[in-house]
UniProtKB/TrEMBL annotation, chains A, B:
Catalysed reaction, written as an equation: adenylyl-molybdopterin + molybdate = Mo-molybdopterin + AMP + H(+)
Cofactor(s) named in the record: Mg(2+)
Enzyme class, first EC level, given as a word: transferase
Keyword Magnesium included in the entry's annotation: yes
Pathway: Cofactor biosynthesis; molybdopterin biosynthesis
EC number: 2.10.1.1
Taxonomic lineage: Bacteria, Pseudomonadati, Bacteroidota, Cytophagia, Cytophagales
Top-level taxon in the UniProt lineage: Bacteria
Entry keywords, A to Z: Magnesium, Metal-binding, Molybdenum, Molybdenum cofactor biosynthesis, Transferase
Naturally occurring in which organism (per UniProt): Echinicola arenosa
Protein family: Belongs to the MoeA family.
Designated name of the protein: Molybdopterin molybdenumtransferase
Length: 395, 395
C-alpha cells in the first residue's frame, strides 16, 4: 500500500495531451486554452474618454479653466475622431468615444452647465484628465490569457475583444464510465430487496460534463469472462476508463485479474487513505489507455475522482490545479496510518470548516450536505483547530 | 442615489418564479430543484455487508469466536438473500451484499484463512459487526434534497438512487442580452481606429450559460427611435432584459427616457458603489419583464451582474445565495460615500485576498487575473487587515 502523495505522483506521471481543436467562442467556457492569447491592438485602442462631458485643451492640469467654452460639436462613441478647431472652444464627448484631436482633458457634465451652445464651467481647476490613455491597460502584443488556462465566463469577453471568434482549446479525452456489481439496476427500474439503483456512474458522468467531457456509460456483470471480453473492447476504444466497483477483496472483484490478462500495466492498487483505499490505477501501453478503477462506495468513488482524476485532467490539458485551503474549525485526533478526506461544512461567517457526521463512505446522501472534503494528511499528533488544510470543493 | 443594500432589496422585491418543468436527470445539473426529494426506501435498503469476508452468527460481540467455520456457500452482491443453516457454519459474503438470514457479524478476509471449504479465524474476538444496518443512513421517506437547491454533480447520484430518472426543476426565464453603443462591432470584424469589438454581451452570455440559461444576443444602435421600436418588441417577448451601456449621462444614453416612454417602471438609477454606479433597474408591469441595465464598462457590467442579477436569479428560482467571506490581506483606507467591489487575488496558503492593481472599470483584461470581488461597505474608518468581507467569485 502506498501513500497518497506517491499515488498522486504515479497518476500525474500518466498525464497526456490529446491535441488541440478549434471551437466557437460560445462553446469555449470550461475548456483549456491551447494557445496563448495576445492583444491585437493597444488597450484601450485609442485615448478613450472616461466621462460624459466636454473635452478641452489644457496643457497643464494646474492651469485655471476658462469660465466658458463655446461648443464646436459632439464627439460620439463609435464616430471617427473629430478635431478641435479653436483652443478656446470645446467638443462635447461621450464615454467610450475617441478623444478629439487637439484636446487632452475632459470636464464631466456634473461640473458644467450648458446654455445656448456654450459650456459654463462650475469649477476652477480640472479634477483630472478623465482620459484612458491608448495602450495604458496593455499595449498591443501583451499576453492576456495563457495557454493551459481553464476558460471561465470572464475570459470570454477578453477573447471577444481581441477578435477570437474561434478559440484553440485542448481536446478532451474520450472516456467511458463502467459500473460493475450485479446488485445494480437502472434508475427507472423497481429494485428487488437485494438490489440498488446505479448512482456512482451518474455522479461521475455529471462531474465530467462540467469539464466538457461527454462520457459513455457502460455496465458489465460480475463475470470474469464477460468482463474480459467487454473491457478488451473498451480499452481499445477509449482514452480513459473510469470504473466503479470490483477492486476490493471480494470473490467477484475480478478487475485486477482481468486487467492483468489484458496487458494493462498496474501502477498501484490500494492507497493509505480513507475513504477510497482500494483505488486501482494503471494504463495500457499499446492503446495508451488510462484506467482509474474506483472502489464501489459512493463517497469513495467521488473523493478519488475529485482528487486524482481531476488533477490528472488539469495536468494533462492545462495548468495544474491548486487547491484552496480552509481552516479546520475543531481539533481532531490524528491518524498515523491513513490520510483522510473528511466531509465538511463551511461556516460562511468565519470561513472555517467543520466535519459532517455521517455513516462512512457508503452514505451517498451525505453528499447533499457536504461543501467538500478536507484532506488531513497522515499524522501522529492531533489536527489542530485553526490549522489550514487542502479543501476539495464539490460545488 | 441609493446605497447597495437598498438597491439589492429593490431587485429582490422583483423575484419571480417561472413555473416548473421536468427534465431528464442527465440535464439537471445546475438547475434548481422544484420538488422535495425523499428516499423511496430505507438507506441502505437492507442490512448491507461492509467488508468482503465471512458472515457468522455471533449474538454478543464480546463472545469469543470459534477457531473455524465450515463454509456453507457464497452470498454475492446482487443475489437474493441466503440463509445460514447451521449456526456454527458461515457464508462467504461480498461488500454490498445483503446480510444472510441467521448471521449478524462479518469477519473480513484479512482475519481469516480459507482452506478446503473451511474458514480458519486468526483473531479471538470480532472487530465489529461490519454491517451497515437497514435504514441507518436514512429511513424511507427522509427528505434528502430540498426544493430550491441548486443541483450539483454530487446530487445526481442521490437522485439516481431514489429513482428520479426525470426531475422537476424551476424553469429559467427567457432572456435577451442587448448591447448598445455605436463603437461596438462584431468579434470577427476588423475594427477601425475608433471602434471596439463587443465583449460584455459575451461575458454575460457565458455566465448565463452556466446557470442553464440560453440567452439571445441583440444589438441596437444609439438612436432613440430605433431603440424604442426594438425595445418595445423585446420587452414583450422576454422575461428579462439585460442591457449593457446607454445609462450614463451621455447625449446618446437614451435608455432611461426610452424605458419611461415604454411604460417601464424605474425602481432606481445610480447606486452608491464603485464600479457600476450608473446601474438602472426596473420592470414592466403589464408584460412582467425585469430590466437590468448595466453601465457599459466591462468590469462594471460584470460586477453588477454577479451581485444583483445572480442574487435575483437564486431568489427567484431557488434558495437564496450565501456569499463566502474572505479575509482582507492588507489594510485599506475607508470609503464613506461608496461601497466598493475590489478585484482581488486569492492567496491559497493563508486564504486571504489582496487587491489587484488595475486601471479601473474599463480594464477588461484584469478579469483574467481576478479570483473575484471583495465587497467593501461604505465606511469612514479603514478596512482592517484580517477583517472578513463578502467575496463574489468569478470562477
Amino acid at each position: 500500500m502506498i501513500n497518497i502523495q506517491k499515488a498522486l505522483d504515479l497518476v500525474l506521471s500518466q498525464k497526456q495531451f490529446y491535441g488541440a481543436e478549434e471551437v466557437p467562442l460560445t462553446e469555449a467556457v470550461g475548456r483549456f486554452l491551447a494557445e496563448d492569447i495576445f492583444t491585437d491592438r493597444d488597450a484601450p485602442p485609442f485615448d478613450r474618454v472616461m466621462m460624459d462631458g466636454i473635452a478641452i485643451q489644457l496643457k497643464d492640469l494646474n492651469d485655471p479653466l476658462r469660465p466658458n467654452y463655446p461648443i464646436q460639436g459632439i464627439q460620439a462613441a463609435g464616430a471617427p475622431q473629430m478635431t478641435l478647431k479653436a483652443p478656446d472652444h470645446c467638443l462635447e464627448v461621450m464615454t467610450g468615444a475617441i478623444l478629439p484631436q487637439g484636446t487632452d482633458t475632459v470636464i464631466p457634465y456634473e461640473e458644467v452647465e450648458i446654455k445656448e451652445g456654450t459650456a459654463y464651467v462650475k469649477i476652477e481647476k480640472a479634477i483630472k484628465r478623465f482620459v484612458h490613455g491608448q495602450g495604458s491597460d496593455s499595449p498591443k502584443g501583451t499576453l492576456v490569457l495563457q495557454k493551459g488556462k481553464k476558460i471561465h465566463p470572464g475570459d470570454i469577453g477578453i477573447l471577444a475583444t481581441v477578435g477570437k471568434s474561434r478559440v484553440e482549446v485542448a481536446k478532451v479525452p474520450t472516456l467511458a464510465i463502467i459500473s460493475t456489481g450485479d446488485e445494480l439496476i437502472e434508475i427507472d427500474e423497481k429494485p428487488l430487496a437485494h438490489q440498488i439503483r446505479k448512482s456512482n456512474v451518474y455522479n461521475l458522468w455529471a462531474s465530467l460534463l462540467q469539464e466538457g467531457i461527454h462520457a459513455e456509460r457502460h455496465h458489465i456483470i460480475d463475470d470474469q469472462k464477460v468482463l474480459q471480453t467487454q473491457l478488451k473492447i473498451l480499452v481499445q476504444k477509449f482514452d480513459v476508463l473510469l470504473l466503479s466497483g470490483g477492486v476490493s477483496m471480494g470473490k467477484f472483484d475480478y478487475l485486477p485479474t482481468v486487467f492483468e490478462n489484458l496487458g494493462v500495466q498496474k501502477l498501484f492498487h490500494r492507497v493509505a487513505q480513507r475513504p477510497g483505499k482500494p483505488f486501482w490505477f494503471g494504463y495500457h501501453e499499446e492503446f495508451n489507455t488510462k484506467i482509474f478503477a474506483y472502489p464501489g462506495n459512493p463517497v469513495s468513488t467521488y473523493v478519488n475522482h475529485l482528487f486524482y482524476f481531476k488533477q490528472w485532467l488539469y495536468a494533462s490539458l492545462g495548468n495544474s490545479w491548486t487547491f484552496e485551503t480552509k481552516e479546520l474549525g475543531e481539533e481532531m485526533p490524528g491518524c498515523p496510518n491513513l490520510a483522510r478526506f473528511i466531509s465538511v461544512n463551511l461556516n460562511s461567517e468565519n470561513g472555517r470548516v467543520l466535519p459532517l457526521n455521517h455513516n462512512g463512505s457508503g452514505d451517498l446522501f451525505s453528499l447533499a450536505q457536504t461543501a467538500g472534503f478536507l484532506l488531513l494528511p497522515q499524522r501522529e499528533g492531533v489536527y489542530r483547530k485553526g490549522e489550514r488544510f487542502s479543501f476539495i470543493t464539490i460545488r
